[in-house]
Amino acid sequence: MAINLTKGQKISLDKEAGVKLTKIIMGLGWDAVKSKGFLGFGGSAPDIDLDASCVMFDEQGAQVDAVWFRQLHSKDGSVVHTGDNRTGAGDGDDEQIIVDLTKVPDNIKSLVFTVNSFTGQNFSQIENATCRIVNGSDKKEVARFNLSTLGSHNAQIMAKIYRHGGEWKMHAIGEIGNGRTFDELMPQITPHL
Description:
Lipoxygenase-1, 2 helices
């Protein structure tokens, strides 16, 4: 059973999965809050474009690469974004980032996952927003992080996956922020490296 992560929590991905992970999927899902129409009828939900990003850092904390809706593959091929969902329509993951841990170059120390509202809505206008880590081999959920914290922020630094003692660990950062892309969150990301 998947663990529900809380802000600041650290876990061993292998221990939580029960196996040595070779591939993980970061899934992002969300729905727009539906407005109520006249007498409760005819409500609508605005299109909300949340974007998942993965920023790759070296041992010194320098950004090496980033995978997001404008660059769907890392230069080394270890990280792949499955594509931009601009509405949150559908059930399950609306966007996914797939990481082949066996192909992440040795000079990469950490991968930081962020979520941004590209259309600018804040999280009080978004419901059922979750990020989850899935074992890419058997598709079982390893960990889940609830992003539906109501507030005026429109971005969140979700988690950092990092190398430690020969294994991959995860730190649920859960820090709120503001910015339409991961670039605008960099001043908030760097202290967590």
